[in-house]
Amino acid sequence: MNKTIVYRSFFVFLFVLLLGGCGGGVSSDSSPGTTTRSADLSSTVDVAGKTVQLSWNDVFPSGTVYQIEMEGAEGTFSVVDAIPGTGNASQKLSWSHALTGAVTYRVSVVQNGQTVLLLTSQGASTVSASVPASPPAIVANSPDPLSGTVVLSVNGSQTPYVSVAWYVDLNFVGNGAAAPGNPYSWLTTGVTDGSHLVLARVETSPGNFLELRRSFTVANNAGLVVTTTYSGTSGIINFDTRASAPTGIAQVAGFLDGVSLGVLSAPNACSLTCHGVNDLYRFTVDSTRLSTGSHTFLATATDGTGATKNVATPITISNPPLLTVDTPADGAFVYGTLQLKGGALTDKPGGVQVSATLGSYPILQSSSQLFSTAFDLTGVPPGTYTLTVNASDQTNMRSTLQRTVVVASDPSRVYQPLFDFGIYGTLFAIEGDQVVYQTRSGPMMLRNVVTNTEVVLQKSTLGASPSGVTLENGNVYASTSLLNDCQVNSVCVYQWRPDGSIVNLSTNNPYAGSDYQGDPVAHGNYVVWSNVRGDVGSYTLYNVQQSTYAQIPAPSGVSSVVNTNYDFAVTGNTIDFAFWAAIGSSVPSQNFDLFHWSSITQSSTNLTNGTQNPATLDTLLGIDGQRVVWQQNPLVTTPQTYSLVGQPFSGGPRVTFSTQSSGFMARDGIVAWQEKATNSTAIKVATPTSTVTIANAQGAALFGTAGGYVYYVLGNAIYRWNSATGNAVLILDTIPGWRFFKGNMFYFTINNTVYRIVAS
User: Fold this and answer.
1) Could you report the per-residue pLDDT of 481-494, keeping only the tens digit for each?
2) 66, 197, 237, 589 - which has most CB atoms within 10 Å?
3) 34-129 belongs to which homologous superfamily?
4) Does this model's pTM top 0.85?
5) Is 592 left (phi over 0), alpha (psi -120 to 50) or beta?
6) SS3 18
7) Apex CA 35: angle with CA 29 and CA 40, to 5°?
8) Where are the alpha helices (DSSP H) in 171-311?
9) What is the CATH code for 322-413?
10) Which of helix, strand or coil describes residue 248?
11) Residue 62 Cα distances to 17, 30, 86, 88, 89, angstroms
């Protein structure tokens, strides 16, 4: 308490006591609603000093004595001190006292024999004072030392205080915003580096204030420049920090609401202007792990001398509703009724509205967190439909999930999913109950779809994207680069055994090319791949059981072999291999010819002898087991059609299957092709005993062949023709994505989900 005021107040207090009984009643105003309210009585509690200060305007005439009254336990007020007025209406008077508990005060004057009470600006005649058991405190969105713009606020309340006035070194800098904590953005570059006192005058209720103090250290380090931007306010958010200093940047640490996001010793992301060299320190967060509302990202940069700078970036997160669809799964087959079940949640007030459409037809409107409906599919044509589910909160933020569903024409065509390989996954190869696949960033996996067990293929994430992936007798073959054991060649051929162990087949290959070996093709116990050696190249024939290598050399007169679109057949111990090769050194004098190499003769036979036009060359070839099949030069360019011919491995006359082929497949004793007419497409098949037309309709298309079966598209559905019976059946009411055929197995995908159909 101010000693001068105590001294003066003591004698005035004695005077007031001597006059004790002279007053009349108590009034809250001397001239109604003016003088005492303009006194603007208030109380301020110094939380740190545990004192209270009453303040008011000296609005009464000179000679007036202001009485400080305190409420007792029985609810009556008694005078505890008095202060004489100055008669100066612009003068602010104050009185302070130590606080030991909660106290209620009032200030009165005696006018015309009547006691008049001073009022607060809100018209209250009393003010209260106490030190909270857990007092609020000043907080900053950045730890010491502060730099740049810092957001100051007062904690302890989920709603805004009546008001907060902010001071730095006792100089008023501004009023806090009408938001929780009454935040104020303080630009620290306006003060010198060093320690500064921040004071907040917090109005907790009208006329009642708390005084909060906190010292901060400012260190703007002008040479250390740090800035941060962010990419959005929901979903995956990138906080991109730029930092520079004359002595270089040693590290940048990221924090969100005080939780570490990691420390980066070098930039890890490239901006739009980085020109190939990373220039951003990027920290990534998922907003769904944060609540909607205000958050703070802090970047702490350290330069080469060890100096640091903290830069806080406030961000307001606005999460869309969390939407889940339990059923149906993506790619599901349905018949009769579509069952839709799911949930929608929001961290905002007001709930969520959920809607769903099949195609564009509305099938659900719900405001429940858990939603469901059963939609009758009677009369809905078979095929693929998009199910769209939307959830919207009261701020109109929306979450959307889509599912692809296939409406089946019959319950027998409702297929169950085998597994889901995730977005951007890849299905590489199939054999029996096994498949080879890879998730977006994971290793290649060998999966048994019956037992649902998986084997990780070693080192399959270390190299470049694999090519020529094939699965044969439980072994996986592929070519890839960048593995540390592929030093001689830029691309090597690898074998993964059924246990996932890896073997580099190129390491011991005596016929390895100087550039690369790649695109393996496997049948039975043999693998063939191409070798690039200079300009000509060759092929390697690898015996898996014996681990031996043999070379299939380029024929005489060939300038280079083609390192793709080759295949072979195994009959007992005989290998028949078909490939394309270039004749001549350059276009236009260069031609391409098709060759047949036999392990019996150890020589290659030219099957086309310069009849292929390189300008319209189609280097596709097929092997049906007994002969090589290819398309000769196009006879008509619009639409482009070819002459489809076949040459038996054993020699003999050449077979012409069609003179109007627009695409073909050859495998397992079957040659299938399509012939396009003006208004229709015919699908034709040559077996060892006959040639038949299995479909002829507009939109028909050849889809696949294996194991004596031919698959074709008709009317946005898939049919399977059986060479043993000559019958075709509808098997699938949609056209899938990835598709693989081997023996009696047909594997396919609907989006990320894998299915299969087994021919009995």
Assistant:
1) 877 888 656 789 99
2) 66
3) Immunoglobulins (2.60.40.10)
4) no
5) beta
6) helix
7) 100
8) none
9) 2.60.40.10
10) coil
11) 20, 16, 5, 8, 10
